Amino acid sequence: MSPDSGRSRNDRRKTPCRTRTPSRPARAAHRWESHMHETKKYGRPAGETPAAAPGAPGAERHERAEQAEQAEPYERYVGGSPEAERVIFEGLARDLMRVQLKIKKRSGAASVDRAFHAKAILGVEDARLRFHQDLPGDLRTGFAQPGAEYPVVVRLSNASGLHGPDSAPDLRGAALRVQAGPQEAHDLLMTNFPVSHARDAREFVAFARAMAGADTTLRKGIALFVKLPMAVGWPAATRMRRNVTEATGRTVTSLALETYWSRGAIMWGDAGPVRYRLRPAAGAPAAPPPSRGDPDYLGHELAARLAGADVVFELCVQRYADARRTPIENGASDWREEDAPVIPVATLTIPRRDLGAAAARATALRVDQLAFDPWNTTDAFRPLGNLNRARRAAYEASSAHRRGHRFITPTPRRNVVAGKLIEAGFRALNRVVPWHRLPPLLGLLNLDAFRQVLRRRNLIDTEAREAPPRARAVPEPVEEHLRTRRSYDGTCNDLSAPMMGAVGAAFGRNLPPVYRPDLFDTPNPVTVSRELLRRDAFIPARSLNILAAAWIQFQVHDWVEHKRYPAGTRNVEVPMPPGMTWSNTPGGAPETVMRFAENEGVRLDGGAPILFGNAASHWWDGSEVYGGDEAVARSLREPDGGAALHLEHGHLPPGPDGIPLTGFRDSWWLGLSAMHTLFAREHNAVCEALRREYPRMDEESVYHTARLVVSALIAKIHTVEWTPAILATDVIDISLRANWEGPPDNWAARLGLWLVDAHALTGIPETLPDHHAAPYSLTEEFVTVYRMHPLIPDDYEMIDHLSGASLGTLDFNDVQGAAAEPVMRRVGLANALYSFGVAHPGAITLRNYPRALQAFERDGEVIDLSVVDIARTRRRGVPRYNDFRAGLHRPRLRRFEDLTSDPETVARLKDVYRTVDDIDTMVGLYAENPPAGFGFSDTAFRVFILMASRRLQSDRFLTVDFRPEIYTPLGMDWIARGGMNSVILRHCPELAGLLPRTASAFAPWRPVTPGRHVPDTRHG
After folding, report:
1. Among the three residues 365, 380, 402, which one is the final residue of a domain in this structure?
2. Exactly one of 62, 557, 676, 987 is catalytic; which is it?
3. What are the tens digits of pLDDT across the range 99-139?
4. What is the pLDDT of residue 1012?
5. What is the total count of domains within the chain?
6. What are 978's strand-pairing partners?
7. Quick one: pLDDT band at residue 39, thresholds 50, 70, 90?
């Protein structure tokens, strides 16, 4: 395809990856009705364009695509539209990454290399390109001006993806980077044969797949005469073999004497399309016959030539004539000189030098690390044609793969075949026996099969894409420190897509959104709340303690935050039912509407919100402790710039409003205070241990390493402790531990996973990052299933952990907001943890929503949080419950009795909703009869099993960079040995006898029997 197989993918704003808080990207939803993972491999038939109704998501993009197609008469898009073509090309790019892996395996290389042009012959940075003084007038555009001279980086190479001998039959390539200004460069890529063996990108990738690793005569024969015809058909395969044989069949004596053709066209300003070529200047000395015994004779010949004189080429162009004689889309068609005369436009000079000198070798190494891409240019010189458009996706993917910025994990063929059979078998079995009633090992395989289906069908790509691609500046390299540290704002976790999952990135989707403004208030959310959610009497979850409730809020504050408009500036108004009023501000007058701040959303033409940005990062990065930007993060550290977080006598310092200073301070209450205090202390403990173990580590490195350790420990606790506590079944315990540690040492389980999902044979931290069907983000459906407010009790008894004596009973308002920290200081962290440890949270069910949260003061508003939850879910386009469960591959409800066996609940549902299709998602999730031992519904669990592993699998710091070189050996050991119990006991060792012996710290603790006096030895 070119002399270079890709480039490093820059962020969507085309700026270097910096540690900063980005502005919210204005991303539009697209292709909801035809998701990328359901698109056929090679798209729609040519000429068929996907329709989009005016005003519908994607309509604006569709109109832009039509305009682009009309504006570019030279080009035709595969699949009928730029967007359809983009999807196809992304699939081809993934195929190229697989080619790279195959080459790596066949060659025995230590790392992934370029898919093509792997062996560099020459790399220089100081060549010069000078345009001719007599440059024709219509070719004078942009940087192409008479007499203009620019520095050029030059890379000459063999075309193969293998580092074979120069004598092997092969093409040769030239890649130029013309530096036209500080912010302007133009990459020109050429090969020493006038046409491509492939007409288009599909043929090109098919050829690459067939030839990958074909390093022997037998393998090449099989590739050319068996694999290639099967992929493209006999006529195309014959033509491709003929072109390749002609291109590689002659002996190359010197790369300085070769002519290199672009083979694809580019725009040349107002002059229109051109193809370009680089040919030796007249009078270049001949080369000696090649030394067949020297595998690197081309490099040695160039070194000898440059030792004595400059190497000079002439850059020429051919103008476009017409679609028949000079086709744009067919890379296998030559532009004959009689149809398109060759016009010299500039001279390229590579100055003489000693290529054996240290400086020259260092330069060659730097050049070899570059990623050349024809799209590194300006709009006036943008590439044209199918092969060039495919290069955008292909180069981004293969270059990122080569640099270790992007990864692919091929699925074994047995998993594809056996997986389909096993999925079908479980689908039939589950009609009779649900997964949670199966024996644990069979249930484990059933869950893995579920997860595979959900990954294919329920990860929707919501990213806005360039279609067709656009020219851009050469991407800046990633800052080195971001390879080993989490950024403050979540940028650069995926180095190939630095904005993925960052602060401001849009929430994704597991289901196509359903926007029905006409049903936003039907049925009235206040009625739903009063009839179905209001807590009549506290219903406890007896298998858990209140620490479980505090923990999940602690986690949710790390993961998700929908940004709101300032109170009173842009509101949602919910009409009150007849005869009811609401005071929207503390002490305010009664009104007939309930009012609360609207979420900021991305809109199309002033219409309904399509996507909402996350004001937190989507990664599991401890941002609730550390903050979501550099300013906040630094303000929380010790004033002298040390690595530790600032504490006052072991407690978080209060802010001016009385709420402690920490990474996330909204919805503050005593449970959050306990979690934040505990993990701030844990951070400082890790810092102290790192300083002792590595005395030469500077404070900045100590801070960032401690953050990595604490964030990973939090992820581990949630995965292997909190989740099995709230989903208390053997199969969940096994599967969640398998996510972190790998499957149990059981031959049957391992055999089953070997057949179904070989990637599950190790814990996720032992795998490579994998985003599966869509770029990583948390989703609106994920937010919906984590609405677990019923866990919060309305009152709390504080108890002395030594004597068992009551320290007072407090209602929620006594322990929330600014009131929380005085309570924490008075009772101490140990007593707070113990008081929560022996008390139960509420069950996640109907009629158990905390009364205190139904008249909750926040940011100058008084809100009923249950009404807000319902209203926001509708406005964010989350489907109603019946569509929600059907979209997650559960049978639809036909009647209310299918949802719950409780007759009173059925009666209330019928009073509120007209049909089962009207039931709100949150209501349905609460009403559903959960599996035995589950703290929430099976429907919610479907989103959980998809996203729980995804949060680990997508994260570079929990997969490929979860290693001692990044975390330090001490940090890895700290995580391996650590858990919630160890964190609690490190900071409150006096609680050792009270924690559960055989369960997690989220299970009920042993209560102290009050009575006898015990000396006060509390640690605070």
Report:
1. 402
2. 557
3. 888 888 878 888 888 888 999 999 999 999 999 999 999 99
4. 54
5. 2
6. none
7. very low
Does 853 reside within a domain?
A: no
In a domain, 483, yes or no: no
Which of 153, 103, 118 shows the shortest CA–CA distance to 2?
118
- Rounded Cα distance, 473 and 126, in Å: 20
Domain presence at residue 815: yes
Tokens encoding 701: 């490195």
Shortest CA distance to 671 belongs to which of 501, 518, 796?
796
Residue 567: predicted pLDDT: 81
Peptide bond into 724 cis (omega under 30): no
Residue owning tokens 């005085």: 822
Tokens (6 digits) for 194: 């006038």
Cβ pair 82, 69 in contact under 8 A: yes
Q: Taking a C-beta distance cutoff of 8 angstroms, is the pair 23, 629 a contact?
A: no
For residues 246-283, b (16+ Cβ closer than 10 Å) or e, as one string? ebbeeebbbbbbbbbbbbbbbbbbebebbbbbbbbeee
Q: How many CB atoms lie within 10 A of CB 134?
A: 9
Confidence of residue 23 (pLDDT cuts 50, 70, 90): very low
- 875 close to 920: Cβ distance less than 8 angstroms: no
Radius of gyration of the chain (CA): 32
Say how many Å lie between the first and final Cα of the chain, rounded. 67
Report angle CA 1011, 1017, 1020 to the nearest 5 degrees.
Answer: 110
Beta bridge partners of 187: 177
Classify residue 293: in a domain, yes or no. Answer: yes
| pLDDT over threshold 50, residue 55 | no
Q: How far apart are CA 603 and CA 498, in angstroms?
A: 24
3-state secondary structure of 828: coil
- Token digits for 395? 């180069």
Q: Please, are residues 612 and 507 in contact by the beta-carbon 8 Å criterion? A: yes
Position 13: which residue type? R
Which of 95-99, 729-733, 784-788 shows the highest mean pLDDT? 784-788
Torsional sign, CA 317, 322, 328, 331: negative
Is the pLDDT at 449 greater than 80, yes or no?
yes
Could you tell me where the DSSP H helices lie in 718-807? 723-726, 730-741, 747-756, 780-785
- What gap in Å lies between CA 553 and CA 788, rounded to an integer? 9
Q: What CA–CA distance (Å, rounded) separates 613 from 560?
A: 9
Are residues 463 and 9 in contact, defined by beta-carbon separation less than 8 angstroms? no
| Domain range for 193 | 36-402
Q: Report the distance separating Cα 574 and Cα 598, nearest Å.
A: 12
CATH code for the domain in which residue 818 is found = 1.10.640.10
Question: What Cα–Cα distance (Å) separates residue 431 from each residue in 323, 653, 789, 891?
Answer: 58, 55, 32, 9
pLDDT, tens only, 249-270: 899 999 999 999 999 999 999 9
The CA–CA distances, whole Å, from 106 to 100, 116, 206, 921 equal: 10, 15, 18, 51
Which residues on adjacent β-strands are paired with residue 185? 179
CB 916 within 8 A of CB 927: no
Closest CA to 546 of 837, 892, 161, 203: 837
Q: What is the DSSP code string of 138-195? A: GG-BTTB-TT-EEEEEEEEEESSSS---TTSS--EEEEEEEEEETTEEEEEEEESSSS
The CATH number of residue 364's host domain is 2.40.180.10
Check: CB of residue 399 under 8 Å from CB of residue 7.
yes
Q: Measured on CA atoms in the order 511, 516, 521, 522, is the torsion positive or negative? A: negative
Torsion of CA 333, 335, 339, 340, to 10 degrees: 160
Q: What is the pLDDT of residue 213?
A: 66
840 given a catalytic annotation: no
CA quadruple 90, 91, 94, 96: dihedral, nearest 10 = -100
Asked which of 386, 402, 418 is the last residue of a domain, the reply is 402
**Distance of alpha carbon 360 from alpha carbon 756, whole angstroms:** 51
- Can you tell me the distance from the alpha carbon of 399 to that of 884, in angstroms, rounded to the nearest whole number? 39
